């Protein structure tokens, strides 16, 4: 798989941006870029760390949107039954739910829900990093 001159010039900052965007509601696959870049001149450790940090910060931005949305629910805007079930599950699991934010589709919702229920930022961010870093480690290990 050729990266082409554009990705060659973007390098690790491009992977960081792709990983960040992939952790938001944008439909984007940072894994494909990670695999392509792993075939190039970059260190696998640098790739793993860059993708993990970028993806975690993207997830933290979704968490922050949930926190921001919490202001509206505090003013009396009620959630529907389906949303209430998500909130109950998220409250029950607390920051541990952040381990699952790497999952496609539902991971973004988990991050937003964690912010909305007011899960503590520090443990949430740490567990989010652990889950996302483990996913990227598996992707790179499967390439060996």
Structure, described:
It is a single chain. This protein is mostly helical and 144 residues long. The chain is built from six helices and no strands. The longest helix has 31 residues.
Task: Output mean pLDDT.
Answer: 86
**Number of strand elements:** 0
Q: Beta fraction of the residues?
A: under 5%
- Mass-distribution shape: elongated
Essential attributes:
6 helices; 144 residues; mainly alpha
Can you lay out the helices and strands and say which pair or pack?
Elements: H1 4-22, H2 30-38, H3 44-74, H4 81-93, H5 106-116, H6 121-142
Helix pairs in contact: 1-2, 1-3, 2-3, 3-5, 3-6, 4-5
Summarize this structure briefly.
This protein has 144 residues and is mostly helical.
